[in-house]
Amino acid sequence: xxxxxxxxxxxxxxxxxxxxxxxxxxxxxxxxxxxxxxxxxxxxxxxxxxxxxxxxxxxxxxxxxxxxxxxxxxxxxxxxxxxxxxxxxxxxxxxxxxxxxxxxxxxxxxxxxxxxxxxxxxxxxxxxxxxxxxxxxxxxxxxxxxxxxxxxxxxxxxxxxxxxxxxxxxxxxxxxxxxxxxxxxxxxxxxxxxxxxxxxxxxxxxxxxxxxxxxxxxxxxxxxxxxxxxxxxxxxxxxxxxxxxxxxxxxxxxxxxxxxxxxxxxxxxxxxxxxxxxxxxxxxxxxxxxxxxxxxxxxxxxxxxxxxxxxxxxxxxxxxxxxxxxxxxxxxxxxxxxxxxxxxxxxxxxxxxxxxxxxxxxxxxxxxxxxxxxxxxxxxxxxxxxxxxxxxxxxxxxxxxxxxxxxxxxxxxxxxxxxxxxxxxxxxxxxxxxxxxxxxxxxxxxxxxxxxxxxxxxxxxxxxxxxxxxxxxxxxxxxxxxxxxxxxxxxxxxxxxxxxxxxxxxxxxxxxxxxxxxxxxxxxxxxxxxxxxxxxxxxxxxxxxxxxxxxxxxxxxxxxxxxxxxxxxxxxxxxxxxxxxxxxxxxxxxxxxxxxxxxxxxxxxxxxxxxxxxxxxxxxxxxxxxxxxxxxxxxx
Length: 636
Description:
- The protein is α/β, with parallel strands linked by helices.
- Among the domains are: 153 residues, Tetratricopeptide repeat domain (Serine Threonine Protein Phosphatase 5, Tetratricopeptide repeat, Alpha Horseshoe), CATH 1.25.40; 138 residues, 3-Layer(aba) Sandwich (Rossmann fold), CATH 3.40.50.2300.
- It has 27 helices and 15 strands.
- The strands form two sheets. Strands 2-1-3-4-5-13-12-11 form an eight-stranded mixed sheet, with helices on both faces. A seven-stranded mixed sheet has the order 7-6-8-9-10-14-15, sandwiched between helices.
- The protein is globular, with a radius of gyration of 31 Å.
């Protein structure tokens, strides 16, 4: 039956209903009922009418109007609109909610109707409209002092999942779970699976949203992240958690994690992965490392080699075979691996070598690639370590957008890398807030200050003062005023560029205005600048890997030794050294990360997690210039 055909028999009924209800509302002196009583009445009617179809409920409403039972008719139609959803007829549900909107006087019924509308839009794959309907539900909830329903939170969770906002989706799921009297073990498993997908910085964002029972969930997740690859240590911490949270619903998860073969482990389907998963820690004996040891990128290869050797334990029983990617013929690698009995490969490092290596399809040896291929999907036995600056921009934009900043401006250098970071930051900010930040590109020359003044509106203030002085006899002393519609600045540039830019920002902020906080990517930080006079950078907050910042995760003994051995090493080579150090530890951890989605590696390049695409991504930490020192801060 088409919507038009369905509409015709009930058009007159709905018109009559509208007339009756409007007249009743104009003449009635009876005080309005409390929202809760209307909700309870609707629940009783719906329970009594569960054996009716939506069409029959509409017919019943017609009879109720005829007998002047208008409240019952509205309740029946409200139940019908919801039942149309159950019957997978979202078009009819949505049409009916639109007709009922003008007839609803009970805040509780208006709230219920708005949620049905949101669910209808979602079923029709109109996500934006569904989100707007949920916002209307939230407004009605505040006005009527109601509590959100399970349906609201479940719908919100689905909408935020489709919008690719996992933190908000999980927060909604946790809230739905806490008030759902019919929650099951499958609901607990779903929450745990969503938690396991979070990166550490997303985990911290979720904690700040304070969903119900988050303390227990968070602590269990932290234990699984840190110790999930070590059964003995994990069991000890699980016992501790079970004692502390003995009535928490995640006891179900803790019990499963305590089993030798957790039901929550990620199944490996391919024969190759099964062979990988059967290898216990430290069973990889012969490791090939493919890096440039000659040619133009020799220094990069040497830094990575030194990082690997710094992590090497001679008592581990492993043998390292370094292969020069600048001279090796990639087509001979398969035979070479067989000859050397290679059971794991680290590298290649350079992107062009990665492409050549992946072209050797006969190689099925487990491999940790140190660069990302351009457009090749990784096979189950291939894992890549991502050092993409775009990942850093996503973390920064997500974190800062939840710090109550509304009007950011991005100041970015013109080079390609800076542009990519700025663009990713802007896209992520708009994705979360719905508003795109203003982006201003600057040059590293004398024009920089003029560009900054223009972006902050200071040049307009100067022009106004100049015009005023030209019209009067006496010169007026004035303080320049910057724009007041900026509450945060994100800088993307190299260290020396940032060191020039930051003082310009400081001196162009009006003394009458609030201080505008300045944030930056790791491109703006340099350990070499830290050793010099960094007062010009005071207040600058930035993301960084643990190796490059005096932090809790930094291997301080190794960092001190590395500085003595290579005091003049560039920041880029420092990064490659840290990547080498992490890569050797990952050899024995990747299989656990493939089997158990909750396992993380707390490395020198960041906290690493393995995605479904077999790419290892990083969570970075935050640092801040404060007077004469740089220190780690908690931003998330």
